[in-house]
Amino acid sequence: xxxxxxxxxxxxxxxxxxxxxxxxxxxxxxxxxxxxxxxxxxxxxxxxxxxxxxxxxxxxxxxxxxxxxxxxxxxxxxxxxxxxxxxxxxxxxxxxxxxxxxxxxxxxxxxxxxxxxxxxxxxxxxxxxxxxxxxxxxxxxxxxxxxxxxxxxxxxxxxxxxxxxxxxxxxxxxxxxxxxxxxxxxxxxxxxxxxxxxxxxxxxxxxxxxxxxxxxxxxxxxxxxxxxxxxxxxxxxxxxxxxxxxxxxxxxxxxxxxxxxxxxxxxxxxxxxxxxxxxxxxxxxxxxxxxxxxxxxxxxxxxxxxxxxxxxxxxxxxxxxxxxxxxxxxxxxxxxxxxxxxxxxxxxxxxxxxxxxxxxxxxxxxxxxxxxxxxxxxxxxxxxxxxxxxxxxxxxxxxxxxxxxxxxxxxxxxxxxxxxxxx
Length: 423
Fold this sequence. Notes:
By secondary structure, the protein is mostly helical. The chain folds into two domains: 3-200, no CATH class; 206-418, Leucine-rich Repeat Variant (Alpha Horseshoe), CATH 1.25.10. 69% of the residues lie in helices and 0% in strands. The protein starts with a helix and ends in a 5-residue tail after the last helix.
């Protein structure tokens, strides 16, 4: 594997990068491995989760784990973006669990001077030192609250720790500590205050709202997530009223909310107005309009799918969705060609996410398996790649070479999928 190919493999989180290190000279890849330890290269870190375990596997496979461990430990005191910081702390946690006391001490030292850290950093302490780790993190948050009383603090950490150690144990530990520690008390008071605010601002039950209520909320720009929930059980007559109001609406924020009503429910009028909305500059309105159009059957929608791809539109990632309900014989070969030719990773990811519904509606196991194997090599999101692996297993089409490297994939669910399976 050439250095460039290795860099791409480790950025995608493919298990082949780890396997390659097991019996090769790693020096040509040293900088790439180090970079991937210190920087989270995931396409969508929020969805893909931590890559710490993957990188620790790579560190061990390199034959010189201490080199990378020392670099990660030193980096804990440095400023970095949230995803990089989280990964560094998660790697340090794994090192500490493996007996590296320097990693444990560096984590504590870094926490004591950090003014910001996210939930994953806090979780690293809880997973490493249990309730004592929770107390350590909560005490630091309390110190920061004293410096900035306006700091917002929710009950996320309490929920995480409660899932692991039990709600009663968490509450007992923190309440007891709060009796003598004002910082822990400050944290608990802030959490309780925000719980009350959240309770006071609880949204209406969408099922109890009339269309008039929903329209009033849209007009006031207060609908938020209510509209989608309301649409699930809305009557056809109410949806017709909403469709007519959508056509009359010109305010883009309100128009987006009207379009959300038809994300899963069919737009009951002719699609002409939705097609015109797609012509607006790229943004929420044309994208929501495309989601509404994907639910409909009309030759103009099929033509739009081809136009988006052929023109290289930034919205071409919706093209397969548009074909699902507007299918013609030969479309399997067409979407395969679209995927093969696509160079933009964001669009390729959108195509990949559309395939499950397309093939569910129009089965072709041979084409699906072939396409998923090709996408495995290019899909930028490890979470989406995992869905492809799961489908390949269901089709009995996962090659052994891929099954083997999936055991070392960056995404935990992928590793679990192949753990006890062989085609």
